[in-house]
Design a protein that fits this description.
Structural class: mainly beta
Distance between the termini: 40 Å
Oligomer: single chain
Number of strands: 11
Largest sheet: 7 strands, mixed
Order of helices and strands: EEEEEEEEEEE
Shape: globular
Radius of gyration: 13 Å
Helix content: under 10%
Length: 117
Amino acid sequence: QVQLVESGGGLVQPGGSLRLSCAGSGFTFSSYFMSWSRQSPGKERELVAGIASDGSTTNYADSVKGRFTISRDNAKNTVDLQMNSLKPEDTAVYFCNARSRFNRRYWGQGTQVTVSS
């Protein structure tokens, strides 16, 4: 059974930091491109950051570039998203996503991030 379980969300003040983590199981984690996306009410889901299966390359949405860092540990089947200098507009439900080179896709249930004073 494929599972992607996100953790680490919560309430943080503007300018603060949070680290999200996603644990994968039930599939060959090290063969999948992993990414984080987010969705806030009334908006389309936005791809935030992605990382290649071997961790060699990463990409980021312009809105988070320089503030967020994606990383992975294939030995532990985890992918993290370090979020710094958080802004109220970063408030959203954050989802962990997996995609194989054959375009098989999995995603988690999401974790809420709220940036507010």
